């Protein structure tokens, strides 16, 4: 009672803020107030915080209920006098006394105290003003549901007045992790750890040639494909990629080749009945994109830039690939890491703290896996691509290690154009020094059919080169390329391959003079240009036969001459002399 009226819970301004107040001055009684639309998320792991202010004498009952179902099912604490706090568990058929805490500082009238009741795996702890006062382990049977409540009671003495404020309940249970059921593979698995990765025996040091050394992308891909209904493992996928244009000359994984794998698996009956062929997409890293993929049950692959040669493999190449497969309510991302021996679901930002996440590999069902996928194997080189005068595609530096030392790292520029339009693309290449720049081109049409082309040309700081690529996304077999060749590019190529040979270096001026003469005659005496180029071709072929120059170097000159000769192949001998003006000048073509 409050006087002659029933006691009520009210909101009243006290010390400048609105608080919940209860005043009881009638005969002995007990009363509670609890929310009707709130339940404690996990009664084994939660925290209940509130402020209490004791108005009036201290030697009165004050109460906290930290788990409540109804009047005969609750957990609470009764503050008795100024120092004693009794823990109570009311659970029919009996009431248990969980112990008495002693607050040595003692409570003071009209002072506000902050109470924290923390329950962790049924260990109940009481903190007053952030100081641990008491703890007790709850035993079965326990109250496994409920809400919170405010409670007040009065015995036979006077009245009790209490104010409550800042009530907060915190869920202390471990964040729920949503994990997709990704089959796990480790690149360190003894079944395939020492299997030769791609053709690493040709470009990597002995002892650093296995899937354990280079197979993070491969192993990540095997996990994703298996999840999508295309059963495989790192060893069998490695074999497939070696035989189907799935690797570059230096072991980079050509991701669009996986689209072809899923199509062939489906057509060949090795995929699960519900599996749908997928297309690969490369995009810039975005956590929002990861979460969207995972919510759609579409895991993918993250390209981690490790920077400092610090992954657990001995031949870190600054790049690592992992599978993203889970997330929690705080948007933490969880992984399947091919460098782990077991599937321990590491947190991305904890395991690779401070690292960069540069790319995301998505696997989607666009039904158009067409791609132009190119590597320029020259870190100091440059590559740009235009279509109709507009730059297209994306460029990124790729690194792969050939052993344990930094000097063994092979850099390549990766240039990609996803779902390219039909037409002609102009590829411009340059380098900071005169050198042969090998360009690897892997072309995929919208049926995932692949065609590889690997033109080699000499470029330099003052000798940029262009290659015309005619691409048809409906028929990759119709694709062709043509490098631009001029008398200037022929001279650069000759200087490059002949100057590196001590025996031929002194003859460079003579060969250059022959090219100069062929160019000079081209405007009036095309047939002389033709014969001059044929003479140069014969001389280069002779040098090759006598092994003075390599077959590769001969091919470079041959290709340059061949492309220039297109303009002169129909030229025929003719004569012209100024004393016979009735003769017509020789035509260029």
Task: Tell me what the structure shows.
This protein folds into 4 domains: 9-171, Jelly Rolls; 178-364, Cathepsin B, Chain A (Alpha-Beta Complex); 371-483, no CATH class; 487-565. With 589 residues, the chain is α+β, with helices and mostly antiparallel strands. It is elongated. Mean pLDDT is 87; it is low at 308-317 and 402-407. Helices cover 21% and strands 37% of the residues. Helix 8 (487-499) runs antiparallel to helix 10 and helix 8 (487-499) runs antiparallel to helix 12. The strands form 5 sheets. Strands 1-2-13-4-9-10-11 form a 7-stranded antiparallel β-sheet, with no helix packed on it. The protein has a 6-stranded antiparallel β-sheet with strand order 3-12-5-6-7-8, with no helix packed on it. It has 12 helices and 30 strands.
Tell me the helix content.
Answer: 10-25%
Q: Overall 3D geometry? A: elongated
Coarse structural class: alpha+beta
**For the report, how would you describe the main beta sheet?**
7 strands, antiparallel
* Count, helices: 12
Query: Mind telling me the CATH class of the largest domain?
Result: Alpha Beta
- The count of strands amounts to 30
The name CATH uses for the topology of the largest domain is Cathepsin B, Chain A
Biggest sheet strand order reads 1-2-13-4-9-10-11
**Strand percentage:** 35-45%
Distance between the termini: 117 Å
How many separate domains make up the residues? 4
The rounded Rg comes to 39 Å
Please give the oligomerization state of what you see: single chain
**Which ranges are low-confidence, i.e. pLDDT below 50, for 5 or more consecutive residues?**
308-317, 402-407
- The CATH architecture of the largest domain: Alpha-Beta Complex
């Amino acid at each position: 009672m409050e006087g002659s009226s029933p006691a009520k819970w009210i909101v009243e301004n006290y010390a400048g803020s609105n608080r919940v107040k209860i005043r009881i001055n009638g005969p002995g009684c007990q009363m509670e107030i609890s929310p009707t639309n709130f339940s404690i998320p996990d009664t084994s792991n939660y925290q209940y915080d509130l402020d209490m202010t004791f108005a009036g004498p201290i030697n009165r009952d004050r109460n906290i209920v930290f788990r409540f179902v109804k009047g005969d099912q609750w957990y609470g604490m009764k503050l008795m006098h100024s120092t004693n706090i009794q823990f109570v568990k009311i659970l029919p058929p009996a009431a248990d006394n969980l112990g008495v805490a002693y607050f040595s500082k003692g409570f003071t009238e009209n002072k506000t105290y902050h109470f924290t009741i923390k329950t962790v795996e049924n260990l109940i702890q009481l903190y007053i003003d952030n100081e641990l006062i008491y703890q007790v382990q709850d035993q079965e049977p326990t109250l496994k549901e409920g809400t919170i409540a405010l409670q007040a009671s009065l015995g036979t003495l006077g009245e009790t007045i209490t104010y409550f404020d800042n009530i907060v309940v915190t869920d202390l249970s471990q964040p729920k992790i949503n994990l997709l059921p990704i089959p796990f593979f480790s690149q360190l698995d003894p079944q395939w750890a020492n299997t030769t990765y791609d053709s690493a025996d040709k470009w990597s040091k002995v002892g650093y040639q296995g899937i354990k050394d280079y197979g993070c992308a491969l192993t990540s891909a095997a996990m994703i494909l298996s999840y999508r209904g295309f059963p495989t493992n790192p060893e069998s996928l490695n074999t497939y990629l070696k035989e189907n244009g799935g690797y570059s000359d230096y072991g980079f994984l050509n991701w669009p080749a996986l689209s072809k794998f899923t199509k062939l698996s489906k057509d060949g009956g090795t995929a699960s009945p519900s599996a749908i062929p997928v297309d690969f997409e490369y995009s810039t890293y975005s956590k929002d994109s990861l979460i969207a993929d995972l919510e759609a049950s579409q895991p993918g692959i993250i390209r981690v830039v490790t920077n400092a040669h610090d992954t657990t493999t001995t031949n870190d190449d600054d790049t690592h690939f992992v599978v993203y497969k889970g997330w929690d309510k705080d948007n933490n991302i969880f992984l399947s890491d091919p460098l782990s021996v077991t599937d321990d679901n590491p947190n991305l930002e904890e395991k690779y703290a401070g690292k960069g996440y540069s790319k995301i590999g998505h696997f989607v069902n666009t039904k158009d896996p067409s791609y132009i996928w190119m590597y320029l194997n020259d870190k100091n080189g440059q590559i740009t691509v235009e279509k109709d005068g507009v730059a297209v595609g994306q460029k990124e530096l790729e690194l792969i290690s050939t052993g344990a030392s930094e000097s063994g790292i092979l850099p390549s520029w990766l240039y990609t154009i996803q779902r390219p339009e039909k037409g002609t693309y102009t590829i411009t290449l340059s380098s900071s020094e005169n050198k042969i720049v090998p360009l690897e081109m892997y072309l995929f049409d919208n049926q995932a059919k692949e065609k590889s082309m690997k033109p080699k040309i000499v470029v330099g700081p003052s000798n940029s080169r262009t290659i015309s690529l005619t691409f048809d996304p409906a028929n990759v077999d119709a694709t062709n390329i043509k490098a631009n060749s001029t008398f200037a590019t022929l001279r650069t190529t000759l200087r490059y391959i002949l100057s590196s040979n001590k025996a031929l270096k002194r003859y460079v001026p003579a060969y250059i003079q022959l090219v100069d003469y062929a160019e000079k005659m081209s405007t009036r005496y095309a047939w002389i240009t033709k014969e001059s180029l044929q003479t140069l071709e014969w001389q280069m072929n002779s040098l090759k036969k006598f092994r003075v120059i390599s077959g590769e170097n001969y091919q470079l000159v041959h290709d340059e001459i061949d492309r220039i000769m297109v303009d002169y192949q129909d030229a025929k001998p003719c004569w012209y002399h100024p004393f016979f003006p009735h003769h017509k000048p020789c035509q260029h073509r």
